[in-house]
Design goal:
The chain is an alpha/beta fold. Helix content is 42%, strand content 22%. Strands 1, 2, 3, 4, 5, 6, 7 and 8 form an 8-stranded mixed sheet that branches. Helix 3 (25-41) packs across helix 4 and helix 10 packs across helix 12 (262-276). The protein binds S-adenosylmethionine.
Length: 298
Amino acid sequence: MSQSHDPNAEQREFWRAAAVWVDQQERLDAQLAHIGVAAMDAVDGLPSAARVLDVGCGCGQTSLQWSERVSGSVLGVDISEPLVEVARRRAAEHSAAYPEAAPISFAVADAQTADIAGLATESAADNGSFAGFDVVFSRLGVMFFADSVAAFVNLRSATRPGGQLSFVCWQRARNNPWLVSVNKAVLGIVEMPSSDGPAVDPFAFADPDHVQGILGAAGWSDIAIEPHDTELVFSGGGTLEETVDFAMDLGIARRALAGHPPEVHAQVRDAVTAVLAPRETPAGVVFPAATWIATARN
Ligand SMILES: C[S@@+](CC[C@H](N)C(=O)[O-])C[C@H]1O[C@@H](n2cnc3c(N)ncnc32)[C@H](O)[C@@H]1O
């Protein structure tokens, strides 16, 4: 398929190969859960029978959480097949444990280009009677589009008139030392291979004016972008040793250390330990974390 037909092909490949999101799913969920819940709480006047779209749903924790908050239905959409596979497995277990939860379905799709209303109509959860989502939500899953305006136009086209958008994204890197300090420790010792894949910038939505511009250009109204400054238990908790293991498994360390001998791994491990140790508390390794919660209406 040519690049013009598949604008996010490189992202698809990156996220298909992002094994850390599968391998460390429980720890990542524990680390990020409260951040997603803050963006869920930002939706107001939610009809109880709401239909929710979870964009870039990854391994599906937020889709499961939504299914306990609404009685309508939840559709999780993600470009990465391995992540959606995990989400589907978890949803099956979840529905068995919580039969009263709203039906959840998932689709492997590019949220920028997919016919999302069509996916919702096809999904078993919506019984073919789809009339637009009440809520379009994302936890950290909307910063990676090749064309963000086109993506938010596409998402709006699947939203009912008056339906709400709510997502959470990171503020700038400087305000999020949990990632920056680990990356610095790793890259102070080893370089990133120059052949490393596409630019995947978790801080791409750090400038609220930029986000406001994208949402406005995509036709959303009542746009609000509020700071949500919080803390984050790096790796979701556990001992310093376990947290260092987790940091060494993240994308940056994995990719930068590939092919290096054990003594270099050990050096990097020491450097990572040195930045995490001062943050150790009885609850785990705790850092400040700064996010934006963006809300808007169709
Ligand atoms: C930082 S992860 C967040 C995953 C999940 N929301 C969570 O909080 O655990 C970003 C997610 O966005 C997905 N993604 C990236 N580009 C996408 C696109 N164009 N369409 C749909 N999903 C996309 C990735 O596959 C990945 O699962």
